Amino acid sequence: MNFENKEGRQDYLNKKLDDLLEGINTSYGQSLLNELVQRLHRTIEDFNEEFQGIIGDLKDNSERRNQIIHDLMEGKELAKKKNPTTVEASITNDTNDDTESEPTEMSAWEKRLEGLE
């Protein structure tokens, strides 16, 4: 059995299904057997589609995280992407006093993390 390629896995599953379905075929008939096989194929196709979607979303999120980490390591601020009023408000908050600057930085960091989700 060669499980390295798709054809080998399909052949293995087909042989196993044939063995299992022989009993069903003799008991219930060919039409029920055909319906069962069709439903199995649809179930597998649906699973593959959902899995590909999940993997695509995971890949997109990973790329976004990597870009944000790269930008942070280069010292780029994400505030450049914000609108001017938000940037002015953050500058105004930074000029207040040092005790308020820490929560502002933490808030900006939290916003960056929320952007990843």
Descriptive overview:
It is built from four helices and no strands. With 117 residues, the protein is mostly helical. It has two domains: 1-76; 78-117, no CATH class. 0% of the residues are buried.
Give a quick summary of the entry.
This protein has about 120 residues and is an all-alpha fold. The chain has four helices and no strands.
Measure the end-to-end span: 42 Å
Number of domains: 2
Any idea what the shape is? elongated
Summarize the helix and strand pattern as letters. Answer: HHHH
What order do the helices and strands come in, and which of them pair?
Blueprint: H1 6-28, H2 30-73, H3 84-94, H4 98-116
Q: What structural keywords apply?
A:
mainly alpha; 2 domains; 4 helices; 83% helix; 0% strand
